[in-house]
């Protein structure tokens, strides 16, 4: 009886039940929801304008007036931290969405066609995977220049290869299944088979991994902003705030510590959520 149950397909209700049974999944979900709420409600939650300068109050430590202190231009750190969440979440979400669409399409097409075409595509992807994510993003961002759009493009390109790898493996298995052969015999074309029959059967794996790689995208965004290849100032970004605080780390520790802690919480929430989704979608873990 146990073996029969283990081989049955996972229903959405069972997937949700497996997800909710994991206590850490709730921690990640609630923490991420709180961060998203802060980013969306930034105009109402931020006590000051994140770009407003007050030279008289520059480098003020955390106090009742400025809860997280001020930077070298007298700008409120808390307000900039709240608005910086918008940039980090937007860049991470859009970059991963672009990478997921392009990478999944490449993986499905390459795995379905196979042969020499598959070898050439996988060879190119292997070259991309041979570079560390940050180094590849650094090279692309340096060539394109510092801007929000170029930052998203650079991060998206670095994540295309992993998505293609994840999509290719199940495609090779699924294209040999009976329902695909039946569709082919019925007269369905390759594009219809790939994106109507194969893609829906492996999309859950791609979506689960996207939550984990979004954390990587946020780290990459912070790293590129730290070295000056992210969103140009004075726009508030967590990586840019850490860079500004690094110059005053001994005199004004709060400038770098609080943005670093915000990145830590966001990456932790995404990793907890991604691990819970991966375990819930894996029949062996249940």
TrEMBL record:
Domain ABC transmembrane type-1: 85-274
Chain ranges passing through the membrane: 24-46, 87-113, 120-144, 252-274
Keyword Ribosomal protein annotated: no
Localization (cell): Cell membrane
Signal peptide (UniProt feature, chain positions): none
Superkingdom of the source species: Bacteria
Location, primary (coarse class): membrane
InterPro entries, alphabetized: BP-dependent_transpt_permease, MetI-like, MetI-like_sf, OppC_N
Protein keywords: Cell membrane, Membrane, Peptide transport, Protein transport, Transmembrane, Transmembrane helix, Transport
Gene3D superfamilies, per the entry: MetI-like
Pfam families noted in UniProt: BPD_transp_1 (PF00528), OppC_N (PF12911)
GO cellular component: plasma membrane
The keyword Membrane belongs to this UniProt entry's keyword annotation: yes
Membrane topology qualifier: Multi-pass membrane protein
Any one GO biological process: protein transport
Family from the record: Belongs to the binding-protein-dependent transport system permease family.
PANTHER family for this protein: D,D-DIPEPTIDE TRANSPORT SYSTEM PERMEASE PROTEIN DDPC-RELATED (PTHR43386:SF1), OLIGOPEPTIDE TRANSPORT SYSTEM PERMEASE PROTEIN APPC (PTHR43386)
Protein name according to UniProt: ABC transporter permease
């Amino acid at each position: 009886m146990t073996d029969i149950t283990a081989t049955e397909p996972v229903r959405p209700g069972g997937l949700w039940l497996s997800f909710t049974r994991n206590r850490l999944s709730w921690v990640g979900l609630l923490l991420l929801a709180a961060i998203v709420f802060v980013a969306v409600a930034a105009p109402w939650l931020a006590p000051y304008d994140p770009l407003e300068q007050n030279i008289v109050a520059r480098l003020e430590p955390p106090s009742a007036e400025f809860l997280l202190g001020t930077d070298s231009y007298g700008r409120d750190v808390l307000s900039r931290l709240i608005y910086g969440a918008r940039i980090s979440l937007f860049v991470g979400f859009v970059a991963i969405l672009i990478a997921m669409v392009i990478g999944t399409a490449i993986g499905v097409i390459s795995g379905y066609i196979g042969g020499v075409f598959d070898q050439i595509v996988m060879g190119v992807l292997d070259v991309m995977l041979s570079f560390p994510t940050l180094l590849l993003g650094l090279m692309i961002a340096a060539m394109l220049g510092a801007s929000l759009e170029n930052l998203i493009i650079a991060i998206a390109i670095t994540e295309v290869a992993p998505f293609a790898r994840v999509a290719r493996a199940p495609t090779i298995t699924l294209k040999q299944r009976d329902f695909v052969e039946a569709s082919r015999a019925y007269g369905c074309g390759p594009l219809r088979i790939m994106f109507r029959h194969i893609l829906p059967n492996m999309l859950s794996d791609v979506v689960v991994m996207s939550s984990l790689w979004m954390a990587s995208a946020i780290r990459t965004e912070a790293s590129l902003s730290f070295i000056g290849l992210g969103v140009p100032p004075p726009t508030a970004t967590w990586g840019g705030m850490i860079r500004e605080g690094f110059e005053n780390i001994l005199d004004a520790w709060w400038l770098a510590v609080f943005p670093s802690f915000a990145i830590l919480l966001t990456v932790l929430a995404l990793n907890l959520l991604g691990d819970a989704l991966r375990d819930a979608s894996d029949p062996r873990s249940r």
